[in-house]
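Anyone have tokens for Glutathione S-transferase? Sequence:
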Amino acid sequence: MLTILGKQSSINVRKVLWACAELGLPFQQEDWGSGFRDIDTDAFRALNPNAMVPVLIDGDFVLWESNSILRYLANRYGDGALYPVEATARARVDQWLDWQASDLNRAWSYAFMSLVRRSPDHGDSTQIQISLRSWTRFMLVLEGRLTETGAYVAGPDFSLADIAVGLSVQRWLQTPFDRPHLEAVQVYYQRLEQRAKELSLYPLLMGQA
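Reply: yep, here.
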């Protein structure tokens, strides 16, 4: 059985839990991180030298970095539906996975930590506004893409990219600020909410930012 180390409030841990649900994989999840078991220990750093969650343990194989874990699970246990084998289709999924991790996440990080997590280290009002403007700019990119596909971020079918991007959209909608209404993003999120309900994972996947 797979073991997933990391607290459920982590967006990156929820990515992995969602992938396991999509693939029908049994797993055990252990709460590690702030408020739970300490990740700043030699024992945990032996699993992930960055001292971050999630960490996946599959037998004697240990893997960290959430999007890498998504790819591994789909490659090892999937049938190609979440992560296509054909080169161009796979590249499109990879493009949006990487965009979520490198561009979108970087944009919302400061504002989210301030406005939702109430972090005392993220109280600079100028930096909050910079973060919100950048976040909005990237969400407009997503709006354009979803308007184009009329379905999911990598194309007509649900993929690993929607797990990562969808959870980031959740943060966009749950962060208290005066955001523009993005119709295609809203419809997309409703589609993902329904999928989460069908997996019986709605409270876990969509119930918290």
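The chain has two domains: 2-78, 87-201.
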